[in-house]
Amino acid sequence: MPQITIDGQRIETSAGKTIIEAAQENGITIPHFCWHPALSVSGNCRMCLVNTGFPRKAPDGTFERDADGNNVIGWGPKLSIACATPVADGMVIDTQGDKTEHAQNAVMEFLLINHPLDCPICDEAGQCKLQEYEFLHSKGKSRFDEKKNHKDKRVPLGPNVMFDAERCISCSRCIRFADEVATQPVLTFVDRGDHVTIETFPGTQFDSPYSMNVIDICPVGALTSIDFRFTSRVWEMSFTDSICPGCSRGCNIKVGVRNNEILRLEPRTNMHVNTYWMCDDARLNQYKFVNENRLSGAMIRSGNTLVPATWEIAAEKAAKLLHSYKPSEIMILGSARATNEDNFLLSRLSHKILKTTHIDFLHHTDNDFADKLLRTSDRTANAHGAMEIGIKQHHGVSMDNLVEKIKNHSIKAVYVIDEHVADNPELANALSLVECLIVHASNPTSLTIMAHVLFATSTYAETEGTFTNMNKRVQYLMPAVATLDNERIAGLEMSRWDKFGARNDRWSQGVRRDCKPGWEIIQLIANHLGAGWHFSDAESVFKELSIDVKGFHGMSYELLQEYQGITLGTTDHSDVKAVVYESHIFKPN
Amino acid sequence: MNVEKNTEKNRLNFWERIYLPEIARGLGLTFKQMLKPKMTRQYPEEKWEPTGSYRGRPVLVLEEDGERCVACSLCSRVCPALAIEVQAGETTKEKERYPVKFEINMLRCIYCGFCEEVCPEEAIIMSKDYELIFTNQEDAILGKDKLLIPIAQLQDRLEFLRQYR
Questions:
Q1: Hey, what domains does chain A have and what are their CATH numbers?
Q2: pTM to 2 decimal places
């Protein structure tokens, strides 16, 4: 085990590690552009130059000491790049001395020679490594008086990624990402010297399902999202930690919100789940349904139409309907899209209040979606959580024979939460025949049109709760978007604009939707059936869940956040916490 | 203080107490002013033209080929009163982006000139316009239609900025 000293701090590390890795693991950040922990080392940006040396030995084999008794260090003749220099026992590394600082300043001056400095129109501004290091490691002076080199500013590399050649600092992160992670080696450097630029090979385009990750790893604003381009400045948005609901992987994401509207999703580092990446499909699709085409409030069927009602009246109506059927005539459909909290209260409602064992949930499998990196065939976020909680086939009616049972009238009432039946026409047909259909949904679908009582639920971006992914890892999600229900929730991330907006400011008038999280609606209905529940927030539901369901024992929201999720049944021996690599250090929130 | 001693009798002498000479002195000053040149301006018939250094309402510079503004939102960020809202959009022009929406809430604006100072394009500058009358809150939010002013009308301020900034 080599022992090294970085800026006077002694660090025990393992052989074969590079200096930058050893430093990163111990929470010391050495400035870098081209190095990324998930990519191979290319060592071309020269930003991570550090001064290295070893304690000098006297001819008799003892360490030389200076007047104060400290080791005399024999510094190397030149600086070394921390990303490609392996550690050696006894190595002394200086990342802050005059020599290192001088080198960093020189590298910054070189990188900025042909950089257009168009930060005011650059999407990366505010979370740009070049800006960060210009601020931290440069004297801010350039001696370059000549004309800057001009290159193309708008080159689409693929359907989702736009390339600005002028801003590029040729770090090759995107090229290595395409080769090594996306396994679509279509990007390359062309030309030489200051004319060097990045191109796709003739006849190819960078359209890998993970192509948009290059936007995040690009240390400057050379690669921008065609979907997001110029929509908002970084500092105008608030970024909330959340979990992608697109498939059972449960990628950790950040939700960028301005004026109560989601503008973009980006991946968040979690080494146990998605490492540093997320797929383009989620990035492009998993926010639109939150912003557009939403249901509002509760509704009750009157003849052929659904008329708005208050939450209380609708819940009372739903309770009355459920009460009028025998337990054996009721089918409860939980959801692999809903949070553990929703499913837990739903299973409690069915077992303890309605006393029916007819409970199950719909699987949504799409084998075309799965791949080897992140995407899985199960298109729901919480199937394992629903099963663990007990939303599964017991005996009697399940998803297998539901259609048949509805058709022979042994099931007359169905309570569905957060589901759609677009991919299951047979079931849709059957559900249109039931006497009583109670539905929770966030967006209108063919199912909501048939409902007798309809409740608008919050989406993943508006609920506090937990999802359990394919590896049974329970992960916590924070509300990012305010609704009428969660507006006052503690800890809701807010940008400057959200904080100081007044009633007469047009920029703060984003819609606060009238929807509630599923567990709240289930509690309303249960209380009308005489349950007497008093859960005040999602956390109190989760507390009850962690006591009641074996796999969740010992979990709490604090622990889930601290450990970035905990695998079911392993609270007492959870994973070791590691230093999380974040590419941008000054990013807002 | 001894109230007994601070009486009018103690403070004023005889001539002051009878007022008549003091009235004559006051009227003397009035008549003297009548003969001096008049300083009063007959506003609004007669308008004051401020110099280039005056900070009136902020406006956007309109050049022949369109606005200078690239919708970078720095004015919006620096504005201490949060008066400015900008929404950027993409164009095929050389500058790539332009403001789809640019609104200044004149009820919030405090005429500090920070927006002008921070602007990298010299696109938002303080004008000489000091006559701002609104009858409701909606009217006080000025959009691009009211903010864009042809560059010819803004020469004084641009000249001032060139010299003193």
A1: 3-111 (3.10.20.740)
A2: 0.89
